[in-house]
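Example with several molecule types.
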Amino acid sequence: MDKLLQTFATVLKVGAASLNDDSSPENTPSWDSMNAVRLVTAIEETFGIELTTTEILRMRTIGMARDVLRRKGIQV
Amino acid sequence: MLFNSTVFLFLFLPVTYLVFWALPNKNQRYLWLTVTSYVFYGYWNWWYCYLMAFATVVSYLTGLGFLRWQNSPRARRLLLIVPIAIELGLLGYFKYTDFSIQMLNGLLSWQGLATLPLPQILLPIGISFYIFHTITYIVDCYLEVIKPTRNFLEFSCYVSLFSQLVAGPIVRFRELEKDLERIDLTSRRDFLDRGWSFFTIGLIQKVVIADSIAAVIDPAFQNVWSLSTASAWLCMLGYTYQIYFDFAGYSNMAVGLGLLFGLHIPQNFNSPYRAVNPADFWRRWHMTLSRCFRDYVYLPMIGRRPAERRIYLVTLVTMTLCGLWHGANYTFVLWGAYHGLLLVIYTRYAAFWDGWAPWLQRAVTFFLVLFGLVLFRAPDYATAKAIFARLLLPYDGAPLIGAGVLVVFLILAGAIAHFGPNTFEMPHQWRPLATASLCLLFVLSLFLIYGAKSSPFLYFQF
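Resulting structure tokens for the full complex:
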């Protein structure tokens, strides 16, 4: 199972199968402002990293979050 | 120029549409849409066009700057801060100067000092919307969420696009970029049915429902002190549905117009009066604005791992700014703060709230929204106070003229808003009965437009 997708699925309380790299707040109802904050914490804890404000703001889709993590040298 | 005017429906739209589809290549289509959009905007006041052109050039050059200085963090920060300061300066000057001086005058007169004269600056229509378009473009370029475009025609087409120019939806460049890139590859017939259907439904929502309700309640709101409790409730229920059908109608027309030119404008309303709590309401009401405030105001302020108190504070500040964005009046600021408070209360007590029956959650949310709209509708605090008093305490008053008609429209509007599918949930397929009904209502709308002076959309004032 894709670790990043699983993190998003757990926070957003949806099945991982319903998410993909194009998933965003626009097409995922539970991805609201509160869950956006929870996602940052969950990603930092899961991958053992610290995200900067710019990196947090870049994560508009799961694909963009993946890109942010890859730039930090994490294989996802 | 209004969408619900004869000049738009019978001259501007047919000419723009026919010439657009006759043009063979991308740049010609960008140029044509830009020129016609400037004509559309300049129809109010040509002077407004210079302002929009200036904001467009500033943000376009900023995009080029991001391409030029990709590896210089210092230059990138300057490219973020300076153009945004210029754009916000424009918005601040035209929208908030009078308001700021009024606030200052309040303090001065309280101290017994002489007050300052108001410059009474003319507010260019739609400035809040296109400044948001350009600011979101600059921020997204900085964040590398989008790659800046080198094509000035494409960019000016995006900023000035008449379908979304004066009252949104707020469309971010990323959301329209793909459609703009293939603007010459789309077939005219691909979205014709859907586009026409969206536009017609929007027109009907505005002209038949919102304007009919407004015809009864607007005169009553002229003197709220003469309203009885029953009339005050009828008027506020009327306004709650009027603002929805007015703005959702406009948004549907914008979506339909976009489709007629092969462009997908995002959904702006998702049956907001079916919301089960305040957070759900803001996911459904003016969705494109909510997302902007989330991505460009709330998240940058919230920081990493915020404490609960910080979340509440940032929510309150964000929603207060959202209120201020709506209008330079403290009633809008109070309206925003009120919604911020509702969001905080809901977040704090979500477990308790979510335990209620769904119908109760919907009803409570709807009436909380209705109460908030008192602040939105009232021009000042004294009027808002008078309306609140009449909603909550028994008052006698003159009978409401047109109450019978209003009740009929309230039942119709309520049935559609609470139980009917929204425009994005409809099939928009060729079916004889549905198409005939739409045609009939479209003709009725035209008669109403012809018979009365076209009324502006409520959100034009922002």
